[in-house]
Write a structure and sequence with these properties.
Strand content: 15-25%
Radius of gyration: 17 Å
Number of strands: 7
Number of helices: 8
Largest sheet: 7 strands, parallel
Order of helices and strands: EHEHEHEHEHEHHHE
Distance between the termini: 38 Å
Helix content: 40-55%
Oligomer: single chain
Shape: globular
Structural class: alpha/beta
Strand order of the largest sheet: 3-2-1-4-5-6-7
Length: about 250
């Protein structure tokens, strides 16, 4: 029996990187995973790999209309929800003097508003004993030049985990956040802006980690599984750093 056998999980932003690793891990553990993304072709690839273990839904977490359509699909399955991994998000570099309204608004719309309304709209479907896991970042306690808007959006995620854990404790719903450090994902590589800059960016990030390497999406998936499963039944309101010691040492 898997740790999530017979349970239904939602993973937003689940077609690559950390999200995809979590979808795979949850499926191995027996969950039926509703997975979202904005690219139909990538969702089709996830379903081709995992078959009936997943229900793919095209949805942008920053769109209230598409979130309504997503939760209508989940409700129609009639199985409710046991796990929500609110993972969809992203960011890009911008020094303070270069921050535009569009940069600020798009970051907070996706990372902050998308998380708020994903969890809000999941509430009617979440059963007692459910687990909500939010994707934060270890940057919420660090200073990083040219990444202040992203860092602030992830600090908001940390605050939500605390507040929602307090708010939902009487419903026996646990809320926690996972805080990755630099992880070898397409999203991280994309921050380089150009292929010739990628090696320097990734090498510099790895050098700043006490373990002297980037993490893997699979390592984050193990942490998310812990927070999603009954193994963490006495854990709520917490932030689990998975960053090779970068925020602690």
């Amino acid at each position: 029996m898997g740790e999530l056998q017979g349970k239904t999980a939602l993973v937003t932003g689940g077609t690559s990187g950390i999200g995809l690793a979590v979808v795979r891990r949850f499926a191995v553990e027996g969950a039926h995973v509703v997975v979202t993304g904005r690219d139909r072709a990538k969702l089709d690839a996830v379903q081709a790999e995992l078959g009936d273990a997943v229900t793919p839904v095209v949805a942008d977490s920053a769109s209230l209309e598409q979130l309504d359509e997503l939760f209508a699909v989940i409700a129609a399955r009639g199985a409710g929800l046991d796990v929500v991994f609110a993972n969809a998000g992203g960011g890009e570099f911008a020094a303070l003097e270069d921050v535009t309204w569009q940069h600020f608004a798009s970051t907070f719309e996706t990372n902050v508003a998308g998380t708020v309304f994903t969890v809000q709209k999941a509430l009617p479907l979440l059963r007692a004993g459910s687990s909500v896991v939010l994707t934060g970042s270890n940057i919420d306690v660090k200073g990083s030049p040219a990444f202040s808007v992203y860092a602030a959006s992830k600090a908001a995620i940390r605050s939500f985990a605390r507040s929602w854990a307090a708010e939902l404790v009487d419903r026996k719903i646990r809320v926690n956040s996972v805080a990755p450090g630099p992880i070898a994902t397409p999203g991280l590589s994309g921050l380089a802006g150009a292929p010739e800059q990628e090696e320097a960016l990734l090498g510099g990030l790895a050098a700043g980690v006490p373990m002297k390497r980037l993490g893997t999406p699979e390592e984050i998936a193990e942490a998310v599984l812990y927070l999603a499963s009954d193994r963490s039944s006495y854990v709520t309101g917490s932030e689990l750093y998975v960053d090779g010691g970068a925020s602690q040492i």
